[in-house]
Design goal:
Elements lengths: L5 H7 L5 E5 L6 E2 L2 E2 L3 H15 L3 E5 L16 H11 L3 E3 L6 H8 L6 E3 L14 H13 L16 E4 L21 E3 L1 H14 L6 E5 L8 H7 L5 E4 L4 H7 L14 H14 L2 E3 L3 E5 L8 E5 L8 E5 L1 H12 L3 E5 L12 H12 L3 E4 L2 H9 L9 E2 L3 H9 L4 H4 L4
Parallel strand pairs: 1-4, 1-7, 4-6, 5-6, 7-8, 9-10, 9-15, 10-11, 15-16, 16-17
Antiparallel strand pairs: 2-3, 12-13, 12-14
Length: 413
């Protein structure tokens, strides 16, 4: 699929033009404090390039899941402040999405300045299932870019849209999908880079190809497991989802996270892996705790003998060695999902061990966004130890599942 790119837009000339950039600035917050600014930093290259070329940059983004109405705890104010720090210039925050404040703030932009619209999900039309409602918001977003004159008095070429929020391209939403039908649309460098990496994972990857999946729920990854079983050589399963696999094999999992309604599905995966010759690797030992708490007492037990009154919160030392061995000679590695409750220091060792094993390998290695990317940074691991750290967990998984990404398809020429 061919795309019009940021290079194309820059070559057309952007000085004096208002350019709407859809970024993914959905950062984790502790009150008003951003705990991981990775997504803000990932958005910088496109914003800087446009501003440096004289564009009047309008950034649209969301934060969390507000219920289609303004909610102070989901305000992008902390993001605007951090974006301004990283850019070295003030980023004005509109008090609404497309209302009077947005019109005033964007209308006051000078060449090279950047403004951020308030959380686009404060407008219920953003996530509406009704096409006409989304289209209405898209038109109002486009109107914010209007015709603009540069400081020299020359009339610009009109507004443009740059899609650079890979973490949302799997959503058919107004600021992601519908806007591309209203404004001339271009694909940002971040989205292009993510797509190139995902192509490497799906089109003739170097082998052995190993995938590590973790996280809480098997149900979140049903499609991707089914598709990967046709492509990979090894599938390593950890995190909360591992206990459903262990239960499907007939083992006691105690109070560990279990999706009983997925047991038949998981049994099918086990059979399919065996049929295809895919090595499906499960934990051989776990840290079994007395409860879900950072200071919960725990013991290391065999994964096949978890006491009924305990719950597994991390993979054990023998599993860490086992997984590291399965990753050591891999030529391609994709990792999505922590191996345990990494937010608790006592149960972060499994995730750290897997991350370090991947970083130590010579593989083309991709960290699939979301909690995995957060874990890399929270655990203080060097990001350059991995070939690529994705900004879009859900989008990456849907691509690997073989699904269409509406926010990408709409950009194709």
């Amino acid at each position: 699929m061919a795309f019009k790119t940021l290079d194309d837009l820059i070559s057309e000339g952007v000085a004096g033009r208002r350019v709407l950039v859809r970024a993914d600035l959905n950062v984790p917050l502790d009150g008003d404090r951003i705990t991981d600014d990775g997504r803000v930093r990932a958005a910088l290259p496109t914003i800087k390039r446009l501003a440096g070329s004289g564009a009047r940059v309008i950034v649209a983004a969301h934060l969390g899941r507000p219920k289609g109405a303004p909610d102070p705890k989901f305000s992008l104010a902390p993001v605007a402040a951090r974006l301004g720090e990283l850019l070295g210039a003030e980023v004005a925050l509109a008090g609404d999405v497309v209302g009077e404040s947005a019109k005033s703030v964007t209308g006051a932009l000078s060449d090279g300045q950047v403004a951020l619209l308030e959380n686009v999900r404060f407008d219920p039309r953003e996530t509406s299932k009704v096409e006409e409602e989304r289209a209405g918001l898209a038109r109002e977003l486009a109107e914010l870019t209007g015709e603009s004159a540069s400081d020299s008095g020359a009339v610009g070429l009109g507004g443009a849209f740059v899609s650079d929020g890979f973490g949302v391209v799997h959503r058919k939403q107004a600021s992601v999908f519908d806007i591309a039908g209203v404004l001339p649309a271009y694909t940002g460098g971040l989205v292009l880079a993510e797509l190139e990496v995902l192509r490497k994972l799906t089109e003739e990857p170097a082998r052995p190809y190993a995938v590590v999946l973790g996280g809480a729920k098997v149900s979140d990854k049903l499609g991707v497991i089914a598709n990967l079983l046709t492509k990979v050589d090894r599938l390593l399963i950890g995190g909360g989802m591992a206990y459903t696999f262990l239960k499907a094999q007939g083992y006691e999992v105690g109070g560990s996270l279990l999706q009983a309604d997925q047991l038949d599905q998981v049994s099918g995966f086990l059979a399919e892996a065996e049929k295809r010759g895919v090595e499906l690797v499960l934990p051989v030992d776990v840290l079994a705790a007395t409860g879900f708490a950072a200071d919960a007492p725990y013991e290391v037990v065999d994964a096949t003998a978890i006491p009924a009154d305990r719950q597994g919160l991390d993979i054990g030392p023998r599993t860490r060695e086992l997984f590291a061995g399965k990753l050591a000679d891999a030529e391609t590695v994709f990792w999505n999902g922590p191996m345990g409750v990494f937010e608790f220091d006592a149960f972060a060792g499994g995730t750290r061990a897997v991350a370090e094993a991947i970083a130590a390998s010579d593989a083309f290695s991709v960290v699939g966004g979301g909690d995995s990317a957060a874990a890399v940074r929270q655990l203080g691991l060097p990001e350059d130890g991995f070939s690529h750290i994705s900004t879009g967990g859900g989008a990456s998984l849907e691509y690997l599942e073989g699904k269409d990404l509406p926010g990408v398809s709409v950009l194709g020429e």
